[in-house]
Amino acid sequence: MDKHYLSPLFSPQSIVIFAGCDAHSEPATVHAQRLIENFKSSGFSGPLTYLDINTSGTLSDLVKSRVDLAIIALPNEQLSAALEVAGSIHCKAAIIISSGVNADAAKRLHEIASGYGMYLLGPNCMGFQRPNQNLNASTLGKTTQKGATALVSQSGSVTTSILDWASSNGVGFSAVISVGPHTAVDIAQVLDFLAEDNTTHSIVVYLEGVKNARSFMSALRAAAVAKPVIILKAGRHPTTSHATVTHSGALIASDDVFDVALKRAGAVRVQTFVQLFSAVKCLSARYLPVGGRLAIISNGGGPAIMAADWVSELKLDVGQLSTEAAAALLPQLSPLASVDNILDLDETANADHYRHAVSACAASRQIDGILVLLSPKPHLDIDGISQALADLQPTINKPLITCWMGDELVASGRSILNSASIPTYRTPEAAVDAFSNIASFYQNQQLLHQVPSSLSELAKPDIEGAHILIENILTERRNVLTEMESKALLSSFHIPVTKTILARTANEAILVANQLGYPVALKIDSSDIVHKSEVRGVVLNINNATGVRDTWLEMMATVTRLKPEAKINGVTVQNMSGKPDGRELYIGVRTDEQFGPVISFGAGGTMIEVIADRALELPPLNQFLAHRLIDRVRSAEMLGAWRGAPATDRDALERILLRVSEMVCALPQLREMDINPLILDESGALVVDARIVIEPHAPTSHYEHLAILPYPSDQESEWPMRDGSRYTVRPLHPHDAEMLQTLVRNLSPESRYFRFISTMRELPERMLARFTLIDYDREMAMVAIYRERTSNAEGSFDVTERIIAVSRYVTNPDKSSCEFSLLVADEFNGQGLGSRMMLSIIEVARSKGLATMEGLVLAKNTGMLKLMRSLDFKIHIYEEDPDLKLCVRQL
Are 162 and 251 in a shared domain? Predict the structure, then answer.
């Protein structure tokens, strides 16, 4: 089942067109006229039929032919009827090219398509182009030239603008897909298709909104595993209408969350239309950097310095040749050339000088990308230099970017570079910017490959107690927790907090302070007061009973005067932190409407909103992500030895971040949270104040409130083999890649052919990444881990782990069925592993609400077919290939 479910839509073998005409008469609408004109000029060679909604004579013939794609470009009032006809003749997919169809009418069209099992792109879209297949099913203009970059856009005008620019800049595309606001096939499904499209090597997306964050993140992560994804999103600064009761709610904007989500998914975001053009140019060259070291080659000092300044501004590095390589290059350049830091070839540089410099940088392991600058000079052979780079391009395996400054004098040189698919820009900053965007892909891949942290790695929290506390507060029709309640909730997750006791009178406050020991802090306790300091509701470092009494009386009077409507529970008394050298930090949580909870970290204290020093990350966190989150804020610099104070315990801070991550994963009712301040010093961390906002949350599927699922450690189990040894069954980790590759390498040729229907000896790198970096929301892979003990030279034993079996399912687009696969090491056949591994994924699939499991098995694989029958799978003939059997089981 390797053919993607959207292949009939984007790679159709046969097409029927509804345009109110036949092959010779005039189309019915302007959309239809443009569609027919573009379609005819594209050269599609497959079976093609023209129909309208009143056609009946050819329907019986068409039913037998089972057309892949119906393209509909009719007046809006005829769209439903045309879609019904397309469904009646068993079209597998349809496009509706239209405008002005409202949401209700679009919903009706979706229902018709769904009823016939058709995948529908549209309405209100401009169609798509597939230049490599000579297919232009769009109103986007003439077919763009062929390339390896796919363009997906939610705006038709943006799409046409990019195509117009691309035609004059030598940029081609593997696919151009216009996705309208009411389309049934959405951005996530398009990304899913492009991730597996062999003609697409990179993806560029113009985005205006996301309907389902979970499915979008799932598809985006799957695409970014295989190829670079660059996204420009409009609407970065929407106004916020809802009131917030924590610093987190005020500090974190939805666009910030979207930015974090893209990085976590391994994609790269650009901020401007110009940057999007730059990224498309670079991606068209198909080479990606493996770091941020950009060599700068120039025939003038000024432009090179401008480029170097922008490299520093974007936190990249100027790539430099090694001492040996620089010494070898220098004799091949002009006598006035310099190769220190920047390679300044001097204004007398010629084509040979440029060729030698570029070749040296291409061979250097200390350089990840090459920027070649050229300023037009009298008697300079610009075309010759351009042609020299064009000749070198096929031999260079890293990004080669050019900046030919000026206009008339360099125009023909730019044409030569464009023809050779070498990205060229007009300013040094734009060229460096382009390299930065594609270099970000490598950096974001580190985030993509992080395994979401298991919720069982830390000491078990009191989740039941936390739920009881939340339920009691909601029963009282409150959603803002007091400080004491907030700290109680934090304590249930083993987050250290200061001892806090509520006093309702001045005398009680004195008694509590005497028990706790001085100095103490007094804070007003009221769920109606958002920020205590604004009403003078916090007093620190009180050293005696008289001070406690006087402070209590003055605080109550002041707060009553400033907030007469607030319900005051009393005043809390708590120890001072006892950390005179401690740094004040902040950890917050806000729930984004689309992407769920997001964790923020930065400098704390009363000036938090003014300082605005914070970084964001989506949960679940692991230690790498927690460490990186800390490093991304300016205040991280003061966590080391600072102004005479010793370095802080960063490990303690990372543990609290992991605890907060665990907390938001386990408590879907948590809406907002402030831990401010968190005091951190060399001996550990302590929460001094906290405020939490909750809301009722209807029970849903496990972790439904998260955009990224945590590692499902609860699926781990241990089982015996028939020979008495034992093995562990657990979900697959990305770090299992090498063990999985070893399993495949050690298989017999027959076993490899039965599993992959191929004679390959090992998994290609791209396939290995696809198999190991899985999305637990859409698929599950279980592995059997066998531990072997071998004696070593010292007389002790070494324990090594190996994967001896893998079972997997992937959810189908219908969200109710899934496709399975199974692989068992040859020497462990007959040990009951196959049954256990299949039962493991059947159990997980059933828990996800899936109804059917199916898979293809070679008809010659009698052992596998026997196992399927024993597990109650029904064996069917597979009509598309007689060498395969379709195995189906109802869950």
Answer: yes
Joined tokens for residue 2: 């390797």
276: Cβ–Cβ under 8 A, 6 or more apart, which residues? 162, 204, 206, 230, 232, 270
Helices 273-284 and 156-167: crossing angle in degrees, nearest 10, is 50
Task: Classify the phi-psi angles of 194: left when phi > 0, otherwise alpha if psi is within -120 to 50, otherwise beta.
Answer: alpha
Q: What is the C-alpha to C-alpha distance for residues 107 and 111, in angstroms, rounded to an integer? A: 6
pLDDT one-digit tens code per residue, 89-131? 889 999 999 988 999 999 999 999 999 989 999 899 999 999 9
| Judgement on whether residues 226 and 328 belong to the same structural domain of the protein | no
pLDDT tens digits, one per residue of 478-509: 888 988 899 999 999 999 998 889 999 999 99
16 forms beta bridges with 49, 70
**Three-state DSSP class for residue 125:** strand
Of the ranges 42-56, 238-252, 348-362, 788-802, which one carries the lowest mean pLDDT score?
Answer: 238-252
- Spell out the long-range contacts of 608-613 with Cβ–Cβ below 8 A and sequence spacing 24 or more: 608/247, 608/251, 608/676, 609/247, 609/250, 609/251, 612/251
- Give Cα separations from 523 to 139, 515, 518, 536, 690 (angstroms): 66, 17, 15, 9, 12
Q: Note the pLDDT tens digit of each residue in 421-439.
A: 888 999 999 899 888 877 8
Asked which of 417, 448, 479 is the last residue of a domain, the reply is: 448
Residue 642 per-residue DSSP state = B
Query: Closest Cα to residue 666, out of 703, 700, 697?
Result: 703
Regarding whether 304 and 317 lie in a shared domain, the answer is yes
- Which element (helix H / strand E) includes 863? helix 862-870
The pLDDT of residue 27: 67
